[in-house]
Predict the structure.
Amino acid sequence: MHDDDPHPPTLERLLAQSADLHRHLCPRQVLGARMGMLAGRLLGLELPQTARRLYTFVETDGCFADGVSVATGCWLGRRTMRLVDYGKVAATFVDTRAGQAIRIWPSPQARERASVYAPGAKSRWHAYLDAYQVMPDEELLCVRQVTLTLDLPALISRNGARAHCERCGEEIINERELRRGNAVLCRACADGAYYAHT
Ligand SMILES: [Zn+2]
Ligand SMILES: [Zn+2]
């Protein structure tokens, strides 16, 4: 970013950044960016963050998640974002310092209302793309305060935590090892893996 970048960044700038990642701009990126911006306002955080105070759970991957990332500064690669794959365009934003969390999802009326905000659009897809950029938050999005039912500090774990699986010998980081009897095992060996050796 340059010194003359507006702060907080405008939706337009965030979408340019998100579109850069994808070589296209689509309605889901807009939703992701709008959710991230709203979360910043509601939680009183300056976003996109450079620190790791905000932690985000996205409920689907794809374009949406990158819209959320550019708006919040939460990235899988920075360990400030986690995919909980419900197949939903929704996200929960956690202020890890204040212990406050909000979940945001699209209003069930958002698609229908899009035609009001983008009357001349050449297709429904274009109507969503344009309308989602200008619709007021309260028409586009739904918000609820939530509490996490998982142990976030355990999920985040700590730097430098290392173990070795006693069956496959591979290294395990982030305290993801399991204890079975006296054995320390990786999840693949303990519970079965998503792959099989051929
Ligand atoms: Zn897309
Ligand atoms: Zn193993």
